[in-house]
Specification:
Elements: H1 2-43, E1 50-51, E2 62-67, E3 79-88, E4 94-95, E5 102-106, H2 117-127, E6 133-138, E7 149-150, E8 160-161, E9 167-174, H3 183-201, E10 208-209, E11 215-220, E12 233-242, E13 247-259, H4 265-271, E14 280-285, E15 305-315
Antiparallel strand pairs: 1-2, 2-6, 3-4, 3-5, 3-9, 6-9, 7-8, 10-11, 11-14, 12-13, 12-15, 14-15
């Protein structure tokens, strides 16, 4: 009898310890994520974050609404288009907006399309409306968990998100009261949000925006009044790059001479009427004013572009 009671007690204690162990393990990953988020917010001087408390304090997500959306609340059955930037807390995975940072599918498919469940949760719980944008800090247990994401080594920048990494997202949902009625109009709206995110991430300020979505800024004023026209030929140095930092055009070692009408439309628009001899100008070009839907050497289709030109001579 005593042996039977002892055996039963042993089973009960073992069961309780097992349950307690599972509970501790679950709390540990949430506590670990919370510590990561607290440290990240402090180290980066982040302010204005709100903790997601929808359904109780369960997710560990922090968010900040940058621009409120409008219309009816988003539902899992809504088809969305959004652009985003992503940064792992360890700084080894940082990807700003490129054509790859673009989602177009049902909101309920976000997690199955290999984006974090926490992003899906934050859109439903916190952003709520299309046309809005937010910054969201996603704990690792609602991101890619223990295994991380991507191929290659987590020690190589931008090749893999390491395991147990919390993530910092900026996301903008295109839509709301703006009705996008054509593929070209959708691409223009997407490109403009990509450009705005890129400028924000890279601290590019005081640019002028044209009616067709091009941005430019005079970095060095002209030294002579020789206006560039569509019929001009210019002597210049220049750099062209993708938003992921890839340099696809490097004409800086020696000066080049070209007719203005030989450049892509966005470069022509940026130079004509804005640049003279001595001008150094930065031009940020939406894809429709670049190479459009066709790839060009190392430039993927639908890519926004950034050029810097320095003009040394203009003829006639």
């Amino acid at each position: 009898m005593k042996q039977t009671i002892f055996t039963l007690l042993l089973f009960c204690v073992t069961g309780l310890l097992s349950c307690r162990k599972d509970s501790i393990q679950q709390q540990t990953i949430k506590q670990y994520d919370q510590a990561q988020i607290d440290s990240y917010i402090s180290a980066n001087g982040i302010t204005g974050m709100t903790r997601d408390l929808v359904g109780g304090d369960t997710t560990g997500i922090y968010y900040k609404i940058i621009m409120p959306g409008s219309g009816a609340p988003m539902a899992y059955t809504d088809k969305l288009s959004f652009v985003y930037t992503i940064r792992s807390f360890d700084g080894k995975y940082i990807v700003t907006d490129t054509i790859a940072n673009h989602f177009e599918d049902y909101l309920g498919h976000i997690a199955t399309d290999n984006l974090p469940l926490g992003l899906q949760t934050a859109l439903i719980n916190d952003l709520k409306y299309q046309g809005g944008s937010m910054r969201v800090l996603i704990p690792s247990h609602l991101a890619y968990g223990l295994n991380g994401s991507g191929s290659g080594s987590s020690s190589v920048a931008n090749s893999k998100i390491a395991g147990n990494q919390c993530l910092d997202y900026y996301v903008h949902v295109i839509g709301g009261d703006t009705k996008i009625k054509s593929e070209a109009a959708y691409q223009a709206a997407y490109d403009d949000q990509v450009i705005q995110n890129y400028m924000a991430v890279n601290g590019l300020l005081a640019y002028t925006k044209t009616a067709d979505g091009l941005y430019y800024k005079i970095l060095t004023p002209a030294t002579a009044a020789d206006p560039i026209t569509a019929l001009s030929s210019i002597t210049y140095t220049a750099t062209g790059q993708l938003f992921n930092g890839t340099i696809f055009d490097n004409q800086n070692a020696t000066s080049a001479v070209s007719d203005v009408d030989s450049f892509i439309q966005g470069v022509q628009e940026g130079l004509i009427g804005n640049a003279n001899v001595g001008t150094k100008i930065s031009i940020i070009i939406p894809s429709a004013l670049g190479y459009g839907t066709a790839s060009q050497s190392s430039v993927p289709a639908n890519s926004c572009l950034r050029f810097t030109f320095a003009i040394t001579a203009v003829t006639p």
